Amino acid sequence: MQNIPVVKLGIIAVSRDCFPIGLSIARREAIKKAYKGDLYECPVTVENEKDMLAAVADVKAAECNALVVFLGNFGPETPETLIAKNFDGPCMFVAAAEGDGDLINGRGDAYCGMLNCSYNLGMRHLKGYIPEYPVGTADDIARMIGDFVPVARAVIGVSNLKIITFGPRPQDFFACNAPIKGLYELGVEIEENSELDLLVSYKEHAGDERIPAVCEDMAKEMGEGRYYPELLARMAQFELTLLDWMEAHKGARKYVAFADKCWPAFPEQFGFEPCFVNSRLAARGIPVSCEVDIYGALSEYIGSCVSEDAVTILDINNSVPAGMWEEQIKGHYDYNLSDTFMGFHCGNTPSCKMCADRAIKYQLIQHRLLEPVDSEPDFTRGTLEGDIAPGEITFFRLQCDSEGTLRSYIAEGEVLPVATTSFGGIGVFAIKEMGRFYRHVLIGQRFPHHGAVAFGHHGKALFEVFKFLGVEHIGYNQPKSLPYPTENPWA
């Protein structure tokens, strides 16, 4: 993945000056030993504000971009929380559990200190990641640090992200609304461009000497007989156009995601559909969302940071036919018909997440709309089609609604090994209580039809990312025992 941060963690121990400082030092050293990843151990133990400044300067000099603030004893409330203010990156706050033995000189009271730490963070309007149960032994805290890393990676990525768009949303796709206010609240920059800007840049890349190498890589990725040879040069030219635009326009930001208008004008003017190129960039951690879905691109990028893997964006598209459910799902998998649906898009899912028979084809819907009836597909070719490979998934989205409020949802499920017998990049998805979730979160809270898909179960980390970013509304697929506020109890 080329477009997501590498987390460099540091740990700073803090100590209240009326408690033995040796407790914090020894307990910090035990965490360093227990944690299996890279963890820079700050030699300054913070007892006062001057120590805090020295410690922050030290971890910055060590190029840390995320911190563990460790209460080895009760901890100094003001200096420990000012670490989060003075350090430019996400901070996790955790506390030491008491060990066996001496509960006089060996008691640290960090269990109590975490309460005051949280209170002081709130008074100063500072953000801190606090695990579900933030008190533990060295081994416990090592596990908490492991949970913190994907959260930190996403937070760092979002704070250094620019979303680059081309074109306005297509007519009748205003459901993918994108109030810019929410992006700035999250610290995301945006650059909006015309489709003409993209077309001009694309034409300037004609004859680029790098095109043959990209064509060769595309052919190798797909395999013989699974692509249109005459299209490769055009698609390679477009891929290079986007990559060069990214480097030239990221400005002060480190990372980029795209949200591009892909129809109706695109295929005729460029000579192909952009889906396969979009899929290739997504596989590298550079999401390219369809239909200028700005918050879809943001969601995909967060998913890439959390999972360190390819992501996709799909329509929450169509119900599974009752006959298909009866024959291939019922009795084989523990899902009701209303737990299932098909996730679909024209062909932007990375090939590594699709079944082996995937191939570059043509966009059936656009062919009906844009090319002569009964003609052979021409410029509507370029989609990456096939069934999405079975396995665990997380469906999620971060959205700014029409009132300017940030909302999100997360639902874990799976893609079933059931042939879709349909077109596009598509899969049979199953999520427990999807029917109720669909009605009371997706419809009830007015989410658009696009959802981001991370491959694997990443709900725990995504939930913490959204909390850290200040998103107050986080919907999920609640069990029947926990009704939604809008759910009719007599239904």
What are the salient characteristics of this protein?
globular; 37% helix; Rossmann fold; 2 domains; five-stranded parallel sheet; 491 residues; 18 strands; six-stranded antiparallel β-barrel; alpha/beta; 16 helices
The N- and C-terminal alpha carbons lie at a distance of: 47 Å
Structural domain tally: 2
Helix vs. strand class: alpha/beta
Estimated share of beta-strand residues: 15-25%
- Name the average pLDDT: 95
Radius of gyration: 25 Å
Classify the helix fraction into a percent range: 25-40%
Shape: globular
The residue ranges in which pLDDT falls below 50 over 5 or more consecutive positions are none
Strands of the widest sheet, in order across it, are 10-11-16-15-14-17
Give the structure's gist in a few sentences:
This protein is of the alpha/beta class and 491 residues long. 37% of the residues lie in helices and 21% in strands.
